[in-house]
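Re: that chain you flagged

S.,

Sorry for the slow reply, it's been a week of failed gels. I finally had a moment to sit down with the sequence you sent. For the record, here it is as I used it:
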Amino acid sequence: MTLLCHNGIWVYYKTVQPTDQEETGRVRQKRRTRALLLRAAVDLVQRGEVPTVASVADAADVSRRTAYRYFPTQEQLLAEASLESLRPRVEAIIGAARLELDSAAALERIVGEIQRLAVEHEALLRTILRLSLERKLGEGAPMRGRRRLDWIESALEGVKPRLSRRVYERLVSALTLTLGVEALVILHDIRGLDSGQSIEVCQWAARAMLEAALREGGRR
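Prediction finished late last night. Pasting the structure tokens below so you have them in one place:
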């Protein structure tokens, strides 16, 4: 309840907050819109065009104003579209990992293969990271990076029933530190490791995090 004064009269009114379901729905809608724009950009590239934010918005049947919220510059759009074009390779990695009977082996495989892909496209990923960091806070742009959460959750399908919700969510959060160009930047630039060593460290860290979560206990 909130107290409000109007013309000398004090009244109480109830502030209506969005429900968790409404928030979840909005997040999903943002993901769908972003994916739609990226698919349109990839299609234009495959047709031999150099897409602009405006042309992608038109192709995706999304307002240009909305498109610019997701991709303020053509540079960012092209970088993200290039990354999106790698999706088939990533999906193949995830599909192969799902065949692993052991969750630790599946996780280690995903981390290793994804990080090798990150090394292969490190320049592109560093560009995307730079563009992301240059975005001003408070612009209301949707969060990026959901892909790695999906990859992690795929690897943890086998152990999820053995973990409490708190432990599982913390494990997912911790494992994000082992995937992506951010880990490579730290291990290459700060620690001075080569690519092979960096990948090995990411795999070791992921396995250690999983083992720690399993030791901590099951559902509560």
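What I noticed first: The radius of gyration is 21 Å.

Talk soon,
D.
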